[in-house]
Design goal:
This protein is mostly helical. The radius of gyration is 39 Å and the shape is elongated. Helix content is about 70%, strand content about 0%. Helix 5 (about 135-140) crosses helix 6 (about 145-150).
Length: about 190
Amino acid sequence: MNEDDEKNGTEMDDAAEDLSDDLEIEGTRRYRADILLHAPRTQHRDAASVHQEIGEDAAEELDIARRRMQDVKRDQRMSSRLEKLKREKFKLEKFKARALAKPGVRDEYDNLAEEFELLDEILKARAEAGLTQAELAERIGTTQSAIARMETAIGKHSPTIATLRRYAAALGYRVQVRFVKDKRARNGARRGR
């Protein structure tokens, strides 16, 4: 230690002793001054490194707070979207119930049930495989638009058995066609559209 350091250290000790004489915290005499006098001395660090360390800690805490705020906002958006979907679903269900109450609509809806069942099977199989339309198209050797057309326009565009087989095989399935007795049809009566 050089002479200036000793002089500064002595001045600090004197100031701490003066402070200890004046301080009394909740009946504990010389509390803070004792800490200053008797605590182990650490090496002096320059102010820039202390500020940098504090700044890094603050930046990390700020980053954590920002991420938490983003999570909260995302949760709020998801909750809002879910509520909106519930309201829309309720409106759709009410509309469907009113429409199906009409005899002509009910008959046509029933006639389309088989096509919608096929469409549901196709869509479920692709969803379970976790493939996009483009990925499935690549496996089959066709275009994404052809897959989209098949998945949305079954009533307008009926795929061949061969196309359904390629679609199913690309997803790890096989096609099974069965005839099921129609309880609604009269003997020999043809069900038309």
